[in-house]
Amino acid sequence: MIETGAAHIGRRPILVAMIAIALTAFLAIGLVSSRSIAAEPEAPSPAAIGYLPSIGDLMIETIQPRHERLWRAEQEGNWDFAAYELRALRGAFDRLGRSHPTDQQISLPQMISSVTEQPFKELNSAIQAKNGTAFAKAYADLTDACNSCHQALNHGVVEIRVPTRTSPSDLNATD
Ligand code: HEC
Q1: pLDDT per residue over 28-78, tens digit each?
Q2: Which CATH number fits domain 53-152: 1.10.357.10, 3.40.50.300, 3.40.50.1820, 1.20.120.290?
Q3: pLDDT digit string (tens) for 74-130?
Q4: Closest by alpha carbon to 93, among 115, 123, 71?
Q5: Which of 71, 98, 86 is nearest to 170 (CA)?
Q6: Is 56 in the pocket of ligand 1 (CB under 6 A)?
Q7: How far apart are CA 90 and CA 103, in angstroms?
Q8: Does residue 135 contact residue 142 with C-beta atoms inside 8 Å?
Q9: Deepest in the core among 53, 82, 92, 144, taking most CB within 10 A?
Q10: Is 161 in the pocket of ligand 1 (CB under 6 A)?
């Protein structure tokens, strides 16, 4: 009996060592897998999915800067960049309409296409033809389209203009 007891006690350090090894391996696997998860693009948090930028936010972040860049691209004679910005501006309007289907009971996608379709077509032809005069006319028409929607939706105070060399902003309220 005593012998068995001694043998039992004698085996204990081995058992402890085995548990320690198993735990270390477990932790190591955990570390590696958490690293590989961290290397993946992070999934958006529920809070991020729930945040919808307002129409005004999207105007400032996605529409206005592209309207200005489009003008600058043409001024620099960079027709490829103008074509790129025109596509980007159309895409931004599409996303705006999809994320805000209505405003004051008016369909935003319909409103967008009714005012921008013609100027976008003219801008596209002007850019393809590298025609500065046609571009200037189409760009002025697009700028009128911005303002006609602002007026229709009771935001006439947001007056968009064609930028100038000395004042590259497209907002009439500034400089
Ligand atoms: C289909 C309608 C529509 C069109 C087209 C449109 N906008 Fe707007 N825009 C709005 C509305 C609505 C607001 C007001 C949003 C608010 O305050 O809730 C706005 C606001 C703005 C603002 C002010 C945002 C702020 O919070 O200060 C800017 C700048 C702007 N628009 C730029 C433009 C430009 C540039 C164009 C043309 C390339 C354009 N918008 C075309 C509907 C439109």
Answers
A1: 655 555 555 555 667 777 666 788 999 999 999 999 999 999 999 999 999
A2: 1.20.120.290
A3: 999 999 999 999 999 999 999 999 999 999 999 999 999 999 999 999 999 999 999
A4: 115
A5: 71
A6: yes
A7: 19
A8: no
A9: 82
A10: no
Q: pTM here?
A: 0.78
C-alpha 48 – ligand 1 centre gap (Å)? 23
DSSP-derived letter for residue 160 is: B
Ligand 1 neighbourhood includes 160 CB (under 6 angstroms):
yes
Q: Is 86 in the pocket of ligand 1 (CB under 6 A)?
A: no
Distances (CA, A) of 160 to 9, 82, 103, 144: 86, 19, 20, 8
Q: List the chain domain ranges.
A: 2-46, 53-152
Nearest CA to ligand 1 atom 20: 56
Integer Cα distance of 28 and 31 in angstroms: 5
